[in-house]
Write a structure and sequence with these properties.
about 150 residues, alpha/beta, Rossmann fold, about 40% helix, binds 1,3,4-trihydroxy-5-OXO-cyclohexanecarboxylic acid, 3-dehydroquinate dehydratase
């Protein structure tokens, strides 16, 4: 199986941005973690993509159609604003897991809504970067269960 990991705005600032909330690990560390977790879960391919631009995130989700079997996505701030990302995920209709590094459920009111959640079969919050490892494992289990 082929896995696409998508990260939204400011995730490239991991390690620098608000370390009390997001930790000291960098985006490069996150990419390494995802690649290792994907290999261990049996994925043949793991592509990691990060952008600060909503339209670029829509483009990469659309391009996943026919090219990837599952998507793990942290839309970051666009989680709370983007109907376009929701529609893109619904358009390609690939199994998708939403990940948030921080405990969004314990933070500001404006973080309590997720537009993308309706297109995801699972949401993981507040596990730090380990949330991606869990998402990748759970995606592998889902694909093996439904596609064999
Ligand atoms: C985040 C939570 C969002 O509210 C925030 O805008 C982010 C990161 C998280 O991973 O905890 O940029 O998605």
């Amino acid at each position: 199986y082929r896995l696409l990991v998508v990260n939204g705005p400011n995730i490239n600032m991991l390690g620098v941005r608000e370390p009390k909330i997001y930790g000291r690990k960098t985006y490069a560390d996150l990419v390494r973690l995802c690649r290792t977790a994907a290999r261990e879960a049996g994925f043949a391919e793991c592509r990691c993509f990060q952008s600060n631009h909503e339209g670029d995130l829509v483009d990469v989700i659309q391009a996943a159609y026919g090219e990837f079997d599952g998507i793990v996505i942290n839309p970051a701030a666009y989680t709370h604003t983007s109907v376009a990302l929701l529609d893109a995920l619904k358009s390609v209709a690939l199994p998708t897991i939403e990940v948030h590094i921080s405990k969004v459920d314990e933070r500001e009111d404006f973080r309590q809504v997720s537009y993308v959640r309706a297109a995801c079969f699972e949401t993981i919050v507040g596990m730090g970067l380990d949330g991606y490892r869990k998402a990748i494992k759970d995606m592998a289990a889902c694909l093996h269960e439904h596609k064999g």
